[in-house]
Amino acid sequence: FSINMSELELAEELGRGNYGTVKKVLHRPTNTVMAMKEIRLELDEGKLNAIIMELDILHRAITPEIVEFYGAFFIESCVYYCMEYMDAGSLDRLCGAGVPDPVLARITHAMVRGLRFLKDELQIIHRDVKPTNVLMNRKGEVKLCDFGVSGQLEKSLAKTNIGCQSYMAPERIQGESQNNLGTYTVASDVWSLGLTMIEMAMGKYPYPPETYANVFAQLSAIVHGPAPELPPGYSEEAEAFVAMCLRKDAAQRPTYSELLEQPFLVNDRTLEVDMVGWVAKAIEYKNAHRVASSSGPDGPPPSAP
Ligand code: ATP
Ligand code: MG
């Protein structure tokens, strides 16, 4: 079915990124709560149909580790993209109180399965793996969003600022500077996966901007410095897993099938992990430590026990 704005009842803002705003909405005809992302585009009417056609592949991205796509529409120079609402929000704001080893394994497992699905079933490389693009709900489910399905959309983005947190792999940073955009492979997503795991464990981005004099120094550390490591307290299996993902030489990084066979994820298959309990605590912590941020309100308000 198709969705249009007149069918939607707008609710609160869920967050804000570089290209637009995500709002909670109610789709009245189906009584479905959704998340609607508004993406401002550099106006180019001729490209709109190409984008809608490219977005159509999202209707085939149906698997437990991918956020469900409901549909997209245009108004003037904005794309409105409706997807499954994830009521626990993104990982960047869920990991404040820390992530125990088994929870890290469970989240990583879901991410690897999601990435492998995109690659094997849809021939898609995610290209934007980072904590804000990994969403959770109160059922304890972990799902990926915002993967690169539309080259046309990518080209039309109204790029207002470049983030100061780069999850780009070293080879991509070097490739960009050589204007060599064709070098993106799954290995670059594997790097971003490793960096995302470290951010979850540390509760902050591992190359903090305040450590570097400027963005050049920061990117230079990613390319030339040693790869970051998990903080103390994680298992050897976890350390080994992250170290493989963050091999500086892209060709040496494991494939998704190889990652699924690593002890860190093999052990997870037989472990009992209380994800529902962890998410509930993580949301409680996030609401208690709510700070005024540029990303808008911090998830759902605290609910009564
Ligand atoms: P960037 O623009 O650099 O990609 P971002 O991923 O944070 O950063 P958006 O994709 O616009 O930017 O998302 C903004 C915020 O909205 C996210 O950080 C996330 O917390 C929230 N969000 C996005 N999609 C959903 C969703 N489906 N359900 C619930 N919250 C969401
Ligand atoms: Mg996003």
From TrEMBL:
Signal peptide: none annotated. It comes from the Eukaryota. GO terms for biological process: cellular hyperosmotic response; p38MAPK cascade. One of its GO terms (cellular component) is cytoplasm. It is an enzyme of class 2 (transferase). Gene3D superfamilies: Phosphorylase Kinase, domain 1, Transferase(Phosphotransferase) domain 1. Residues 290-305 are annotated as: Disordered. The keyword ATP-binding applies. ATP binds at K37. Keywords: ATP-binding, Kinase, Nucleotide-binding, Phosphoprotein, Serine/threonine-protein kinase, Transferase. Belongs to the protein kinase superfamily. STE Ser/Thr protein kinase family. MAP kinase kinase subfamily. This is mitogen-activated protein kinase kinase.
